[in-house]
Amino acid sequence: MDILQRSYEYGRSPLASSPQVSTPRNAFLFGGNISQSLSPLLHGILFKAMEAPIAYHLCQTIEGNTFLEYLRDPTTIGASITMPNKVTFGPLLDYLTEEAQAIGAVNTVFSRLDTIGKRRWIGTNTDCVGIREAILQHNPSSVAMAKEKPVMVVGGGGAARSAIYAMWKWFSPSEIYIANRLKSEVDEIIKFFTSSMPGIRIRYIPDVESAQKLPTPSIIVGTIPDYPPSTLGERVCWQICEIIINRSEGGVLVDMCYMPSPETRLLNVAMKAGWDVIRGTEVLVRVCVAQQVLWLERAAREDGIKEAVAAIVIKGSSRL
To answer: Taking every annotated instance into account, which residue ranges of this chain make up the domain Shikimate dehydrogenase substrate binding N-terminal (predicted)?
Structure first.
């Protein structure tokens, strides 16, 4: 609930005095290619468990004006943002939270009232919260396990940035390894986070030889698509992952990828090597939970969370 308390730094609650949401309201997902999104399924289950009369809609658009038009509707309670809008829609909002600024991307929008009662829209990033909560719920000792030890992120895109933020902010590692197909992407990440999170320590793993010399990370977060490596950079990145995962020490591995199936090749390699694995679908559920905490201003029901996890396992299995 820490994200809820900090949200009031941006203003007071826009909800009625009653803690229950009684007036029908709407929430939206804005993205460029979202017809197969699992978010409507999960949010529907979580809203139902909370007895909140909120409808969750897909809005396939990359137009900022369309986005703002929906936010102006008095029945809009909040929004989710996905690719390719996570960076471009941020400047359209009134405020950005620490997480959104440090990561450089927005995936969640919520409102608070200013001193004269005007709605202000705040952008934040709950992808990082989803990563944190999925790990902590799965392995409560993970913070102690990771403290002053290396962790690793696979990939160099937006999800990797959320993982880097989550690792450094909440797990206190000694440093963060990055395995990625392109050094140039990692160079940009290091430059960005050196500015947004002073003191952060990030190490790029350029080749297999370097990977063999490094201590095993306690936590690995995968953020790359689940397809066979084809380019030289992709093959080297995969070899680095295999070398590190197949060591005897083990640890916790999260793969944020869940399409077309949550049973990714990275997870399968880790399971065979004895790692404690967390599927991307579990992270997605926790992201949705964090969003609803900000929208409804109360904790999610555990029975709703369990139902959402079960539903997404069934949905994911149907894709196999």
So the answer is: 29-109
